[in-house]
Amino acid sequence: MKDGYADLLKGKGYEIIELLQGLGVPRTEAISIACLVCGEEMTSQHIERASGLRQPEVSIAMRPLRENGWIEERSEKKNSDKGRPVKYYRLIVPFEEIVQNFEKKALKKNMEVVEALEQLKELSNNG
Length: 127
Prior knowledge:
By secondary structure, the protein is mainly α. The chain has helices at residues 12-22, 27-38, 44-51, 55-67, 95-126, and strands at residues 42-43, 71-76, 86-91. The protein has two domains: 1-93, Orthogonal Bundle (Arc Repressor Mutant, subunit A), CATH 1.10.10; 94-127. A three-stranded antiparallel beta sheet has the order 1-3-2. The longest helix is centred in the C-terminal third of the chain and has 32 residues, at 95-126. The radius of gyration is 19 Å and the shape is elongated.
């Protein structure tokens, strides 16, 4: 039975995951970002179905996205009052802004590496 979420990450989604992981973004976080970029508002169950992640992994992956102010999380009671409410997630900033955040971090890290190399060169010339 296909539910529409199984193919969500095909193509663009997998490429986003691969590139984010190349930047050092944790796997579950990269997968969650890709799901929210490729889908609209999604429940944690939708993300689980699309990605193969387990519920605790989705919850943990959402924490840094929430802390960065990238997502909105809302809870909705199921039809009956029994059980946990369903959590819905959606991006509240453009994906471009998220990419720029990773770009700033990468450039900062690269500058630190360049500065360390320059200091090492100075030390080797003074030796």
